[in-house]
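Comment on the following before class.
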Amino acid sequence: MNVSSKNAHILFLCLTLLSLLMFFQPLKELTKFSFHNHYYTHIWLIPLASIYFLFTERKEIFPEIRPSRGAGAIVLLAGIAAYFIGNHFEGRLNVNDHTAAMTFSGLLFLHGAFLVSYGARAYRRALFPLFFLIFMIPIPTFLMERIIDALVAGSSHMTEMLFRVTGTPYLRTDNIFELPGIAIEVADECSGIRSSIALVITMAVAGHMFLKRPWTRIVLILAVIPLTILKNAIRITTLSLLAIHVDVRFLTQSFLHHSGGIFFFLPSLFLLGLLLWGLRKAERISAGRSKAEEA
């Protein structure tokens, strides 16, 4: 480690410690929030993953250190400004949104600290581990509500298609289905938002590790949406058919209803793994063609 890199690491460590002091209360709030909200139990795994990628890719990220004092200072000040704005609106925001605002300000400060310490070139090479930290930010309420509404609507449409395919008679009113002997509602709890977040994070990591091109990584992450909707519909249809033809308690008291999500999550993960394999193969074919054309 040369003197310049050692000084850069010391500076970044000092700024990080300063940010921890500044954002101690928001971090405490974020931790408490993650323990009480089942959507965000993953939050403190995110910085560990980010640190892992920074460490394993350090030779590519830090071959040359040229601190960007000006740009870094601007981002640092933006983080501090966001911190005070978030504090000012604390009384007008719910816990989720205030925690999101304060976490965003802390991450903005951290990005500024990285720029000040290591420079723009290192920052560009560290984009994934730095922007991966965005998964620490709770999704704002207005956005979460719209995502859940879209997933519920998509799941309802797909469930209707599966009822048609299986020949199940039904009467649909919005997200409510009247079936022989029972009525079900595709509620917010059926949206699959929790598994969607888990799959998006998993595919972001997998794409970074195994894919090289931005478009293939984007395709892999976007594939989570239709797969989540299909998974939800299959689960709803399966439980409904079991309730109709076997025992109505499959919809009310069964393990498959309350805790059986894993049985539908794993096939989704497997299908995404197949897509990852296909995208990786497509990248290799494309790279081979490019080399052949150059030759």
